[in-house]
């Protein structure tokens, strides 16, 4: 790995930093915290809220390759999960190709999985159940995308962070008030898991972590940002979850079988699910040096 580390963040709002301490509860994220902890020379944030697996491959990966990344941190699958055209086989295909392209240039790729939904008391039980079942399929897709590159090689390697099986991931203080994004402590938790997976040493004291309380400012954030975010992302999911459980069970069995068929190379899933108008995928980390040329780029 190169002496001067370049850390690149790919994916969705978790990589972007929602829930971390900062203006309007958006901060350096686990990407910036990881880069700070390992003493990276440069960090490039390409993660953007709302992005799906297809967006990461088609928009973010080409930009990442121009940065010549040493370590790539990726959070993906959460936005795919909340849509009616949810297709875990397509998530696997897009993520596997993204990882392959990044590993081929020598990058270490670390992909974070989805946790179990255990703290979302404000969601109806049927919606929580649906999200959990879909999250399990997303994790299956992501872990299998990582698997071919899990061993050290000449051109790089990949790791999967399994939050589903980690009991610590269900601790309330690791999650923002919306329960969809990590809290500042949660972002630091992910950064430390990534650091261990990368086998890099801690070279700097971690950035400050402020434990979230239930103050009025966070409730205002939830009403103004969190609830509208959930409604936009799940406009297809909630009506779908409200139909009979018989229909739901048949659909989930079909999706699971489609994923297994794809993993067995028996079918090739369609490439779909790209955002209609993806926003800019660039944001510079406030605690690290940014790349001026990339910062002016836009995915629109």
Structural class label: alpha/beta
CATH superfamily: SGNH hydrolase
The rounded distance between the terminal residues' Cα atoms is: 32 Å
Query: What shape does the CA trace take?
Result: globular
Average pLDDT taken over every residue: 78
Instruction: Give the strand order of the largest sheet, numbering strands 1, 2, ... along the chain.
Output: 2-1-3-4-5
CATH architecture field: 3-Layer(aba) Sandwich
Uncertain regions spanning at least 5 consecutive residues: 269-300
Helix content: 40-55%
CATH class: Alpha Beta
Task: Report the order of strands and helices.
Answer: EHHEHEHHEHEHHHHH
Largest sheet geometry: 5 strands, parallel
Find the CATH topology.
Rossmann fold
Q: Number of domains in the coordinates? A: 1
SSE inventory with pairings:
Layout: E1 6-11, H1 13-16, H2 29-37, E2 42-45, H3 53-66, E3 71-75, H4 78-81, H5 88-104, E4 108-112, H6 125-146, E5 157-161, H7 184-198, H8 216-233, H9 237-241, H10 245-263, H11 292-295
Parallel strand pairs: 1-2, 1-3, 3-4, 4-5
């Amino acid at each position: 790995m190169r002496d001067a580390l370049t850390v690149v963040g790919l994916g969705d709002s978790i990589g972007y930093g929602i829930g971390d301490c900062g203006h309007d509860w958006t901060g350096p994220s686990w990407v910036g915290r990881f880069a700070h902890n390992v003493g990276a020379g440069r960090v490039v944030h390409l993660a953007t809220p709302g992005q799906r697996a297809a967006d990461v491959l088609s928009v973010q990966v080409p930009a990442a390759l121009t940065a010549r990344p040493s370590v790539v941190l990726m959070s993906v699958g959460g936005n795919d999960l909340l849509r009616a055209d949810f297709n875990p086989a397509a998530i696997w295909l897009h993520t596997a190709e993204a990882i392959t392209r990044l590993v081929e240039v020598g990058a270490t790729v670390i992909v974070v999985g989805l946790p179990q939904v255990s703290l979302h008391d404000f969601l109806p039980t049927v919606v929580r159940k649906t999200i959990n079942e879909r999250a399990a399929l997303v994790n299956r897709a992501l872990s299998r995308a990582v698997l071919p590159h899990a061993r050290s090689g000449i051109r790089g390697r990949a790791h999967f962070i399994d939050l589903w099986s980690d009991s610590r991931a269900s601790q309330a203080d690791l999650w923002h008030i919306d329960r969809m994004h990590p809290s500042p402590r949660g972002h630091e938790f992910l950064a430390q898991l990534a650091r261990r997976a990368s086998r890099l040493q801690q070279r700097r004291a971690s950035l400050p972590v402020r434990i979230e309380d239930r103050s009025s400012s966070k409730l205002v954030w939830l009403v103004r940002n969190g609830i509208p975010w959930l409604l936009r992302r799940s406009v297809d999911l909630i009506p779908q979850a409200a139909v009979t459980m018989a229909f739901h069970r048949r659909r989930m069995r079909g999706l699971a079988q489609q994923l297994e068929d794809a993993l067995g190379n028996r079918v090739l899933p369609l490439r779909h699910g790209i955002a209609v108008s993806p926003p800019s995928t660039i944001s510079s980390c406030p605690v690290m040096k940014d790349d001026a040329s990339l910062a002016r780029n836009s995915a629109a």
